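Incident log entry.

Two folding requests arrived from the same account within the same minute. Monitoring flagged them as a possible duplicate submission, but the sequences differ. Recording both here for audit purposes.

Request one:
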Amino acid sequence: MNTIYMMVGIPGSGKTSIAHKLQITLDAIIVSSDFVRLTHPKWKESLIFPEVYRLIGEHLRNHQHVIFDATNIDVETRKRHLAAIREEANSFRLVAYFIKTDPSVCIKRIILRNQQANELLFPPEIVMVYHQKLVYPTIQEGFESVITIDNND
């Protein structure tokens, strides 16, 4: 059975960088909400996640593991995402990667990222809002395991 590896962490935590490192180890395809936004810059936000779910479902139906690279910070968001993914493909394993990063480190990373060409701009002052809403993923949510990565480097 194929697996969804769900990245969980606040903006600037390093989810995408870690996802790229895990991609080879896990033999998985990354599906990223930010990549969909960059690929379709004129799309309304309401179109982004349906495309993410469609892509995840397509890869799962093609017997591929998927790294779901999005913020996924709270239980309700994760439940909503999983319900939508189950409409696309209902059989998969689920593993969480919780990226633990000090919010001050995330703010510095966001400021640097905002200065790079071809990056989505993110207001650094919003990082603390995300941090306050962050909920650690659990087995009770349906994850087979939760792997914590400390990423303050």
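Request two (distinct sequence, not a duplicate):
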Amino acid sequence: MRRTILALAVALAAVPASAALPVGRTAPDFRTMGALNGKPFRLHLAEQLKNGPVVLYFYPKAYTKGCTLEARAFSEANPQFVAAGARVIGLSADDLPTLKRFSVEHCRGKFPVATASAKMIRDYDVRLPVVSMSNRTSYVIARDGRITLVHSDLDWKDHVAKTLAAVRALRPAT
């Protein structure tokens, strides 16, 4: 565990976050296992998009400081995402037992977290060098499957505000 955290720290310090998937591109579809409030479930992006836009936020590792703070921030803002018609989904390379605990303790049962496979991390171009983890990148995906926002920054602080603004921009003015 210590070696993993050390490798993560070195990788995070060495390389700026970046995501190559451009706005306007169709988001890669995927199926994976996740947890919501400690309960496991199957997650399919195409199914989630039938209900409205999706915020996919990739994070490096559950229970690390930035990832815990980011999960709490998304949890606190979840009612605003729901009001805007969007679903939030956190993704990391963590295993399902870890995600089950994290979904209760830090996501507070407000939104699911799921396992990002190596293929998903590659497809979304969020792989950290050296370690098999994702960087911190948030995507807003419109109901039609098109990416409308990419925010890639290892600092977690702006991810919630930027994704919420992008989701709100998708709603027609009334």
